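pinning this so it doesn't scroll away 📌
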Amino acid sequence: MEDIGPIQMLCVAFDGNRFKGEILPELDRLKRERIIRIIDLLLVRKDEEGRVMVMTSSDLDWDEATAFGSYVGALAGLGAAGPEGIERGSMAGAAELADGHLFNENDTFRVTQSLPNDMSAALVLIEHLWAKELRDAVERAGGRELSNEWLRPEDILAAGHDVGAKSDID
């Protein structure tokens, strides 16, 4: 697995279903310029009568998705069960992302249930490719991050510790 840049989970909502066509072209521009990569995107639209349309997208091909899943799963397994959990977590993570998406049917159901009629919501995991070089330079200089609101591998590891403290993984 290549080095992963900082990952941000962005959730946005919109009244109605009337988009001006500005968001996707901007995402495409950022991707073309290798500023970001979309790990996963879930868009849910609910019309005035409650009918739902769901769209998903990812920039990861199958190999990248399963490698990313393996990496994230290994971190979660390490956090939940220590070194013994790495291999099991890695396999589970790769299997979970074999379809190319981190957001699953449960996420879609929760968004759909919480979204009022005549509203749209998007959940997107964005890898910030631009930040990899800066992050590495700060680390080489001995700098320390004091605050960060982004989802990073360390955050996944901490979440795994929390999960491990609440349940016993066999």
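📌 and the second one:
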Amino acid sequence: MKRGRNTVLLLLLTLLVPMKSIAQEITDSLMSEVERIIETGKRYLGKPYRFKADSGYHFDCSGYVSHVLLQHNIRLPRSSRDMQKAVRKVPYDEVKKGDLIFFKGRNSKSPAIGHVAMIVDDTPGALKMIHAASRGIVIDPYPTPYYKKRYVSVGRIPRLAGDSTVAPADTLHAASVPDSLIHQSLSVN
């Protein structure tokens, strides 16, 4: 009888011991994936910029983001404008590493999306983004006056959102964006 009570007590203690929640495990897994994506992106630092390029050596902004994400089996549309439509918008104050940040192009008065970058440091008030700028692939702080006046929105890649109500990026891409648009670059840095 004593052995039975000990087994029951052991079982109760096991249940009461704090364990990692399923939500925390999912969050940890997503963060690991985001860190791997960021590390992939950093391998291209210094590579030159070229409009409408996504070759692995030359990139424009959306070509760069697409290229990095494809290496992790995440497909988003090719243009920054279409990328913005394919991600889940999040409030600026909820930005996280791996989120995409969208800007107007060179003409800050135009409402059109013309640039995209990926957040690599989400320290409040001192964000850092990696992107293909005219200087090549670089990490820049945000906000700066140039980008602050061009800011449009932040979006979270569906697969990295941890939100089961959002379709995976592969499905979203296939369902909503024709292949002819994927290889079209409409972005302007």
